[in-house]
Amino acid sequence: MASKTTLNAKNLEALGTERLAQLLIEVSNGNAAAKRKLRLELAGAQSPKEAGRAIAKRLTSIANAKSAITWKKRKAFIDELQIQRLGIVEQVGSSDPEQALILMWRFIGLANPIIERCQSGDDEVIEVFHEACVDLGPLVAAAKPSADVLIDTAFDALCENMYGQFDKLISTLTPALGANGLDRLRQKLEAFLETSNATDLSTDVILRQNTAEYMQSIAERRKQRIAKSALLQLADAQGDVDAFIAQFEPWTRTLPESAILIARRLVDADRATEALDILDAADVDEDDWDRMDWQDARIDVLEAMGRKEEAQAFRWACFERDLWADYLRAYLRKLPDFDDIEAEEKAVAIAMADPELLAALQFFLDWQSPDRAAELLINRHSEIDGNRFEYLTPAADALAESHPLAATLVLRAMIDFAVSKGRSKRYRHAARHLATCAELAPRIEDFGAFETHETYVARLKSQHGRKSGFWANVG
């Protein structure tokens, strides 16, 4: 049973309205957001129209503001935006959807200038406008604006979608627009692209034209990109994969990220053969960050085509090349009972012999096999690159409890690198690693061919005793 002093609605109601009112005045004193919330509630208590006026007044103030939104102000500002957004939906929308719809479009129109005022953390601000786009759905359904008004308003918003803040707009409005409305919106966007006369931004042209013309051409190009993005979303809403593909210039379809987008939609349209052709034509570089996404897409396409053996072979090839544990897990799940044991043993042998020690180490840690990771480090300790602290530090942490010798070898590699190379900025970390080695030493039953902790420290002092910056941290 909850205490009578617990903060909940029932206990607060017992205080009575007069006392609660006094407390609210005290709590809101010095809190501008709380005061605005209370004023909005009071306006809403009078009528939805009064609430709408209060919101409209506040939206005008926000629109006129020019000061930067620093990280210190960001949370309070986001709270303020949410108060206005929810006020539109809850206090106005429930009884006057037409007015609420007008207010929500005004609210959405504030997005670009607000985001541009943010000095950091604009993703959180953008999320507020994503929510506002979703709010439009029920408001449009209730207000029932004319198709022409809805199409024109949506078009204007989409053309201002500079930061992706309106990416949910088309999917939200799809039920209200219907097939005809979506088609008309698409035609409007296509007409805009056809009539857009963006300036050629070659170096010669840039040098010849004045700054105003150049900035105008930049704005035109930006709007073109925004319109193309909107057409992609429209194609998805209409389920038109050919219209989706048409938005990509032929040369861009060989980019891995574009090929993936196109292939996934072709699979959804039961055109997996074309999807495989698109993926195989992509220019995938061994060092591309999106190569794993491309590989995942290719496996999905092969599965959709019923070419399961090829999908399995590709999973194994992906694992062998990069030792990514996810591919091995997926490969083993597809094998018959008991076959997976033999395949796992083969995978372990491949990892143990991989020329990239850190890749093998990361695999065993991801595979949750600390025994194998320790064996790898002990057998190939001379290959440990003490400069790769981003891999070695978490490895030492993971192995310290169950395999103190292997963890010690990793820590020593980082210490040796920092001290021998004179990396003074790492001395503090190296000293901490040495202290950890001292803590691990009593738990190591047999150092084997490796130096004991005392011998290692003595050698370190003999070879690097003049590195005073390091030894000062050790004390």
Description:
The protein has 475 residues and is mostly helical. Among the domains are: 253-306, no CATH class; 307-353, no CATH class; 358-475, Alpha Horseshoe (Serine Threonine Protein Phosphatase 5, Tetratricopeptide repeat). It has helices at residues 9-13, 17-28, 32-46, 48-64, 71-92, 97-109, 111-117, 122-143, 147-159, 169-195, 203-208, 211-238, 241-246, 256-268, 272-280, 291-304, 308-322, 325-333, 339-353, 357-366, 370-379, 389-399, 404-420, 427-440, 453-464, 468-474. It is extended.
Distinctive features:
single chain; 475 residues; mainly alpha; Serine Threonine Protein Phosphatase 5, Tetratricopeptide repeat; 73% helix; DUF6880
Main CATH class of the domain at 358-475: Mainly Alpha
Q: Could you tell me how far the N terminus lies from the C terminus, measured between alpha carbons in angstroms?
A: 54 Å
The CATH architecture category of the domain at 358-475 equals Alpha Horseshoe
Rg over CA atoms, rounded to whole Å, is: 31 Å
CATH topology (level 3) name of the domain at 358-475: Serine Threonine Protein Phosphatase 5, Tetratricopeptide repeat
Task: Name the shape in a single word.
Answer: extended
Largest sheet: none
**Care to count the β-strands?**
0
Mean pLDDT: 88
- Strand composition percent: under 5%
Helix/strand order:
HHHHHHHHHHHHHHHHHHHHHHHHHH
Structural category is mainly alpha
Pfam family, one: DUF6880
InterPro entries: DUF6880 (IPR049245)
